[in-house]
């Protein structure tokens, strides 16, 4: 069970940042109308507004490098919390930016996981 | 609703780190047998083992300074996720350690919130 949670968390993280770095509009597939994103303190709700925010960030290309992934079961119904630390390399910047991000993944009625809670912070 | 979530998150964070810095054994009141802590990648489950871990950290006194608190509702049943960034000043250390921590607070049958998920990472 514990190993399964770790695998699911890692698979999600790999998928999420791969999409972010190569096909950012496709991240919309991971959110639902009830999803919430807090990005550097700004609260955004719903798949449309979250997707707009992510696609309008002031950089076109970026590369995430993940340092740590910690996953835990978050409910008896199959939810998972995933905590990520890593860095983002932006084009034209010498130094990567350190960040931390947490996701609360919740099962849909169909049994797939979607991002219910997403909180992102740069580490200064 | 949104302001209420922020207030509850901030009240929890103030209470948690105040206990941590002044009466660490009392943190046991915030956990339950189903609680999980991942501390720097080490997974610990249950109020007894979590309390032991926190009380056996290799420093007696410390002082947390909180930089950011982001809170979101995490379920229709009253759960909350809280994401914290800040620093820890240890005795005899010149520089504080930066950390990020997330909590998933879940309601007990009595309606109080307890820490179901707790993930802590130092930021290097």
TrEMBL record, chains A, B:
It is found in: Cytoplasm; Nucleus. The keyword Electron transport does not apply. Residues 8-122 form the NTF2 domain. It comes from the Eukaryota. Pfam families: NTF2 (PF02136). The keyword Ribonucleoprotein does not apply. Has a role in nuclear-cytoplasmic transport of proteins and mRNAs. This is NTF2 domain-containing protein.
